[in-house]
Automatic annotation (TrEMBL):
Gene3D superfamilies: 3.30.465.10, CO dehydrogenase flavoprotein, C-terminal domain (3.30.390.50), Uridine Diphospho-n-acetylenolpyruvylglucosamine Reductase, domain 2 (3.30.43.10). Residues 1-185 form the FAD-binding PCMH-type domain. Transmembrane segments: none annotated. Keywords: FAD, Flavoprotein, Oxidoreductase. The keyword Nuclease does not apply. Coiled coil: none annotated. InterPro entries: CO_DH_flav_C, CO_DH_flav_C_dom_sf, Diverse_Substr_Oxidored, FAD-bd_PCMH, FAD-bd_PCMH-like_sf, FAD-bd_PCMH_sub1, FAD-bd_PCMH_sub2, Mopterin_DH_FAD-bd. This is Xanthine dehydrogenase family protein subunit M.
Length: 295
């Protein structure tokens, strides 16, 4: 279908984009267009104005911000501009080494064409519960930098995803960057279950694990995808893993709680009970991989 008519603007700065958003009655921001364009073509949304962020260079790139920024804990951190496409993230040695879980998840997004156009910021702002990156941002305890008419604010990932396709970004605001704390020495595992290749996950699990003395799990962070209207942390599993030696039996027992507190959907890809089962299996595999024992 052809989208309804809209005005189109291509600002070259964040300030100019924010001015355009403030003046418009009903504007939509365009990043990589991989989700927005299908929505417009299906006429699920009919904005008066589309504000294309593609010419705002400051929104693109991967920066080591050291202990700066507002990242919780004040340790080292990497900031990724919202308009950075997946393929640049995948090609980055820094991301592969320091944010391995993000690297694993981005490698699983769609196909090379989607990864060429689609952006990390677009994915997180879209907040599709089946998107690969939201649960990873939660597990890595990322922070979202949001710019608006009264300046910038920083929102933890835990407060960013508010409901189905709904985030903390207001109509007159932009997601400008995502800050990821770096956790040296943590292992990472990502498990995504799909019915056919290059699909959104039926369920996915991202795990980061720290081993004390190389043998016992001292801390774990687990993110769940498509187990509710927003990405979720599997807190019960995280607590159960503390102090566990990562054998398949012990990790499997801890991961039996992976679906606790979730509300997965039922659809053509699987019903809610099937997803609950998948969450336990994928969590076990992701944690074992993160602990250096892939199965
Ligand atoms: C065939 C196909 C397969 C796919 N497979 C997967 C998959 O396996 N896993 C997966 O996770 N995703 C998948 N996707 C979705 C893909 O990841 C999209 O790129 C992503 O969801 C949106 O990113 P985008 O940059 O294209 O954003 P756009 O489509 O341009 O924007 C998406 C939404 O976010 C808003 N937005 C964008 N940027 C900002 C910003 N900086 N500030 C505020 N609002 C903003 C837009 O207004 C729009 O509402 C697939 C898409 C297609 C078409």
């Amino acid at each position: 279908m052809i989208p309804t008519a809209f005005d189109y603007a291509r600002p070259t700065s964040v300030d100019e984009a924010l001015r355009l958003l403030a003046q418009a009655d009903d504007a939509k921001v365009l990043a990589g267009g991989q989700s927005l364009l299908p929505v417009l073509r299906m006429r699920l949304n009919a904005p008066d104005l589309v504000v294309d962020l593609g010419r705002i260079d400051s929104l693109r790139g991967i920066r080591d911000i050291g202990g700066g920024g507002a990242v919780a804990g004040g340790g080292g951190a990497i900031e990724i501009g919202a308009m950075t496409p997946y393929h640049e993230i995948l090609a980055s040695d820094e991301i592969r080494q320091e944010l391995t879980l993000l690297h694993h998840a981005v490698a699983e997004v769609g196909d090379p064409q989607i990864r060429h156009r689609g952006t990390l910021g677009g994915s997180l702002a879209h907040a599709d519960p089946a998107g690969d990156c939201g649960a990873v941002a939660l597990a890595l305890e990322a922070e979202m930098v949001i710019a608006g008419p009264s300046g910038e604010r920083v929102v933890p990932a835990a407060d960013f995803f508010q409901d189905l396709f709904t985030t903390a970004v207001g109509d007159d605001e932009l997601l400008v960057a995502i800050r990821f704390p770096v956790h040296p020495g943590w292992g990472a595992g990502y498990q995504k279950f799909v019915r056919t290749a290059q699909q959104w996950p039926v369920v996915a699990v991202g795990a980061c694990v720290h081993l004390a003395d190389g043998k016992t799990i001292s801390e774990a962070r687990i993110g769940l995808t498509n187990m509710g209207p927003t990405p979720l942390r599997a807190r019960a599993v995280e607590e159960a893993l503390a102090g566990v030696t990562p054998t398949p039996e012990a990790v499997g027992a801890a991961c039996a709680a992976a679906a606790d507190g979730t509300s997965p959907p039922s659809d053509l890809n699987g019903d809610a009970d099937y997803r609950r089962h998948l969450a336990t299996v994928l969590a076990r595999r992701a944690v074992l991989a993160a602990a250096g024992h892939p199965q």
